[in-house]
Amino acid sequence: MAEGGPAVAADGVAAARIASVRLDAPGVVRYGPDIAREREAAIRDLLAGNQFAVRGGLAGPYDLAISMHGAELVLDITGANAQTRRVTVALSAFRQTIKAYFAVCESYYEALRHAGPSQIEAVDMGRRGLHNEAAEMLQRRLARAVEVDLPTARRLFTLLCVLQIRR
User: Fold this and answer.
1) Which domain covers residue 123, as residue numbers?
2) What's the pTM value of the predicted model, to 2 decimals?
């Protein structure tokens, strides 16, 4: 973000942030309780605090629509002046990471139900490490068009994973 702190819009609201987010999932998807909780937490946390700046003159705060089109993650970003920019990220580099992340999340939820505190902590550390790696990869893939901090990238990766679920 800009030196000296985030840019501020005329109304006093930080401009380099996401103000609203919408997930465009094709068809009706019914998530299980664990996934629904993760999705809602990621959206709530994303809106509560994020750093998101579109390069090239699109001023925020931003309304963000996240969707999948084929093998691409699509971010439709609408700026404060109602202009829209579409940013796409090829998902081929994320396939293995997403698969591994789903597996470790499943282990984590199973550990929560049946394991002791030390086992839960060990699985959770692995889950968080993989989540951080994926978020850093997403940051790099977005860097030409959008600048995001690591916590924002983590939440966006969570939402990307939610869009991958087909139930």
Assistant:
1) 18-164
2) 0.81
